[in-house]
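Schema walk-through. Below, the input block comes first and the output block second. Nothing else is stored per chain. Lengths vary across the set, and this one has 101 residues.
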Amino acid sequence: MRIDNHPILTFDRGEKVTIYYNGDPIPAYRGETIAAALHAAGIRVLGHSIELHRPRGFYCAIGNCSSCMMVVNGVPNVKTCITEVEDGMRVELQEGKGVIK
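--- output ---
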């Protein structure tokens, strides 16, 4: 869910693009982050803690924590809260510390 109308803020959305989350198409807009697009699509779990495997989600939104790290276009440990979407981008859940392919 995205906020469309706000009494104070305006939203100038960029061009509509499609990213792929674990193979499924997700609508997104240029200029928004991967984590924001996933959150708007109802995806709340972005990964799991390494030791206890507890779910991790959108937390700091400024790149300081490691809760949103995912595999993006085959590259592990990408902080999705500060990485902007690109058309056709492939995003996958990351298990553990991530493995470079």
